[in-house]
Amino acid sequence: MNIHSYGSGSPKSFHAYPRGDFDLESGSTKKARKPKSSPFQPIKMLKSLGTRIHYYYKLHPLVVFFISLSFGLTVLIILSVYESRFRAMSNYQKLSMGYNDYPFTKLQNLVMVAGHSVFTSSSCGKVDKEDSWFLESYQKHPGQAATFLAHIKEGVEIAAKDDGAVLLFSGGETRKDAGPRSEAQSYWAVAESEGWFGKQEAVRWKALTEEHARDSFENLLFSVCRFRELTGSYPHNITVVSYDFKEERFAYLHRSAIGFPESRFFYSGTPASSTSKEAAMKGEALVRAQFHDDPYGCSSSLRRKKLGRDPFHRTIPYPNGCPEIEGLFKYCGAAPYPGSLPWAS
């Protein structure tokens, strides 16, 4: 049986029903509905909003201007706050990721010796001689060098008795004519030359330096940050070693400025030389009054003095190593710092 094709070309298509929805009951075809456009049209909404703003601007130009200005300032403030928090948290996360890299994680107390001069002699056998140190005019008294040695020894002995203490010598490159030598390194070198006063095995491995402080407040604040860099945490107890006549300055004014608990703050003072005590007491009364009015040393004469003690324009690395107290480093005011602090009880 042969199959034949009828006609030429391809067969025509056949549509049983016209296009559309065919209704069997009525025998009619419903036209297909066109899809509705989306109700959300951002371009039209923006044009409408722009038209309204333009309309109100014509009616009340000053009101619209001030509203726009206020909105812009608010956005800038919010962005600035979040940027600051993000940077602090970013730094904190970087530090936290390397927690196991901190060399002294098991130590929890800080013993800080405040520096007062730079050792300039090439011979460590003359550590108790005035001509081995760079002295300011008010420091040139017989027996002055011996007081520096007393501070170093006192710090070593306190740290030797505390298995959980870091010993920090604090003080920057404060004297131009002494060259780029820091007070902290001077004190460490003297301790080394003296064999750590018989406590080398107990102390040397945990005795380090803080080499940027330019005044007594920075001795304390910078050493706290340096402790954080070394241990990954903040000190539980703080002991400061300096002259006995500076106890009120450190134990009250500076301690209060950083909000450190009084019950965990200790002071060990040694006497000034007999020939300089009277002048030292008068000078201390003046400086104490200045810190009373300017507790963070960020204005007036205290600021000028601090800038003068930075002859080599060293860049201060803090608070990079202690991001949790960044606000404290930036704060300047007569009232106590209002922010939260990690050691607040």
Q: Can you walk me through this structure?
A:
The protein is of the alpha/beta class and 345 residues long. It folds into 2 domains: 44-97; 101-330, HUPs (Rossmann fold, 3-Layer(aba) Sandwich), CATH 3.40.50.620. It is built from 10 helices and 9 strands. The chain has helices spanning 42-59, 61-97, 144-161, 183-193, 200-203, 216-231, 247-257, 277-293, 300-308, 326-330, and strands at 21-23, 28-30, 109-114, 118-119, 133-134, 165-170, 207-210, 237-243, 265-270. Strands 7-6-3-8-9 form a 5-stranded parallel sheet, with helices on both faces. It has a two-stranded antiparallel ribbon with strand order 1-2. Strands 4-5 form a two-stranded antiparallel sheet. α7 links the parallel β8 and β9 (265-270). α1 crosses α2 (61-97), α3 (144-161) crosses α4 and α6 crosses α7. The N and C termini lie far apart (107 Å). The relative contact order is 0.11. The model is unreliable at 1-17 (pLDDT under 50). This is DUF218 domain-containing protein. InterPro entries: C57A10.07/YOR238W. The chain crosses the membrane at residues 62-82. Keywords: Membrane, Transmembrane, Transmembrane helix.
